[in-house]
Design a protein that fits this description.
Elements lengths: L14 E8 L5 E3 L7 E3 L1 H13 L4 E7 L8 H4 L4 H13 L4 E6 L12 E3 L2 E3 H18 L3 E4 L6 H11 L6 E8 L6 H7 L18 H14 L3 E5 L5 H10 L4 E5 L1 H8 L5 H15 L3 E4 L2 H7 L1 H6 L3
Parallel strand pairs: 1-3, 1-4, 1-12, 4-5, 5-8, 8-9, 9-10, 10-11, 11-12
Antiparallel strand pairs: 2-3, 6-7
Bound molecules: ligand PBG.
Ligand PBG binds next to helix 6.
Length: about 300
């Protein structure tokens, strides 16, 4: 009976599942900082994607883990880099059955571990825009549906949109990490992707959580620059921001249920199934149209019946 009045739903159609790919893995290797989540070889990734498709998840966000690092993030956009190879393979095997989203950042690829190119000890915004544009064009040419700039450089959406259009990729979308806070919740990801900054922190380019107006402003700017989907990240400590932004925009809003939110629950000792449901429903209820979550596969494989019981 209570199902009758429920008005928030979770469907695999609205989830994006993050996948880590690496050249240095045989099939798959569990990530120590994120129990239950793996780094995959190209073959391992194909198996994972197959399993996800069987439970209705068809959108994936690719992250490369790279040991060949330099100052310019070269291996992020080299055509034989792990992400371009993964995109090519996925497109070849699955054609239009899946949505391929690709993180566009260089922190996994730079010796500094920063999301921008360092010049004289500082992030050079405009040189970074050139690299991000180049990465985006390469990923688009391999077959990505969406490029997802996450480095928080000024005007990154505008620069990438222009580069994509100039290269004939006007059909490729941009899901912008528009509202990305400087957060402790990325900790497990940084060990998973080997992307922690080697000096300083990301406070000069990620948002300060003590102000909600600037967070909303950043999102509106990205909408204006041409983003097709905007995102709030992390999700849980920012449900207020999700709901405020949802009221201000007319394009889809994604929320990233990040690595620290995953690990916090996995290690909590709480009733996992109930906690995961409660948290994911809260993100949806706050106003997220799309949820990016490491829980997606677990949720829709093991809890289908439970969701059904709750009226979904
Ligand atoms: C790259 C990037 C990060 C995450 C997604 N893209 C790390 C960071 O900004 O330090 C974090 C995702 C997660 O914690 O699950 N810049």
């Amino acid at each position: 009976m209570l199902n009758l009045v429920s008005n928030v739903y979770l469907s695999p159609a609205n989830f994006i599942y993050p996948i880590f790919v690496s050249e240095n893995v045989n099939q798959r290797e569990e990530i120590a900082s994120m129990p239950g989540i793996y780094r995959f070889s190209i073959d391992g990734m194909l198996k994972e994607v197959e399993e996800c498709l069987n439970i209705g998840i068809s959108n994936f966000l690719l992250f490369g883990v790279e040991s060949r690092k330099d100052e310019s993030g070269y291996w992020a956009y080299h055509e034989d880099g792990i992400v371009p190879k993964a995109i090519r393979k996925l497109r070849e095997v699955y054609e239009d059955q899946i949505g391929i989203f690709t993180d566009v950042c260089i922190c996994q690829y730079t010796t500094s571990g920063h999301c921008g190119i360092i010049v004289n000890g500082r992030i050079d915004n405009d040189r970074t825009l050139e690299v991000l544009s180049r990465i985006s064009v390469v990923y688009a040419s391999m077959g990505a549906d969406f490029v997802c700039p996450s480095s928080m450089m000024d005007y990154q959406v505008k620069a990438i949109r222009r580069a994509l259009d100039e290269n004939g990729f006007n059909m490729v979308g941009i899901m912008s990490y528009s509202t990305k806070f400087n957060s402790a919740f990325y900790g497990p990801f940084r060990s998973a992707a080997d992307s922690a900054p080697k000096f300083g922190d990301r406070s000069s380019y990620q948002l300060d959580y003590r102000n909600s107006e600037s967070a909303i402003l950043e999102t509106l700017k990205d909408v204006e620059e041409g983003a097709d989907i905007v995102m709030v990240k992390p999700a849980l400590a920012y449900l207020d921001i999700i709901s405020k932004i949802k009221e201000r925009i007319l394009i889809p809003l994604a929320a990233y249920n990040v690595s620290g939110e995953y690990t916090m629950i996995i290690r909590s000792g709480l009733d996992l199934d109930r906690t995961i449901l409660e948290v994911l429903y809260s993100i949806k209820r706050a106003g997220a149209d799309i949820i990016i979550s490491y829980f997606a596969k677990y949720l829709f494989s093991r809890m289908k019946e439970m969701l059904f019981d709750r009226g979904n």
